[in-house]
């Protein structure tokens, strides 16, 4: 699996709608209509190969990593900084795991983490990948455990 789909911030790009639209052109048209943009604006192959035409090209994390001469936030001596903490605590549920993800990558390595993420973001019934907010597998129709479920589980753990 390509390390290019490890977000500089700790996101798993493989579960991103924009990444999915880039590798599945039939989905790109649907997503562009949903987001109210042009199809050509939905292009990204992961943080590891950002180009000017990528959705995340102007990402603050990419700029910050370049400034601090590191490949990712987890490699920075200031990790976790205010920028990444604010992102991890914003309203987008899929952002909530970035600090934990970054620490996990440090502990087990990129290859093992990517294996875990590929399994995590694949339907346990049929094995096809799904995205952060998908509620049912597009291939077999089974319910999947998405980031909304993950966040609910974390809240239950915090209350317990």
Structure description:
- With 160 residues, the chain is mostly helical.
- The chain has one domain.
- 42% of the residues lie in helices and 0% in strands.
- It is built from 7 helices and no strands.
- It has helices at 17-23, 25-35, 60-67, 82-88, 98-108, 110-120, 147-159.
- Helix 1 (17-23) crosses helix 2 (25-35) and helix 5 (98-108) packs across helix 6 (110-120).
- The longest helix has 13 residues, at 147-159.
- 29% of the residues are buried.
- Mean pLDDT is 86; it is low at 155-160.
Helix tally equals 7
Structural class: mainly alpha
Helix content: 40-55%
Largest sheet: none
Unreliable segments of 5+ consecutive residues: 155-160
Give the helix/strand layout:
Layout: H1 17-23, H2 25-35, H3 60-67, H4 82-88, H5 98-108, H6 110-120, H7 147-159
Compact description:
By secondary structure, this protein is mainly α. The chain contains 7 helices and no strands. Helix 1 packs across helix 2 (25-35) and helix 5 (98-108) packs across helix 6 (110-120).
Name some characteristics of this structure.
160 residues, mainly alpha, 42% helix, globular, disordered C terminus
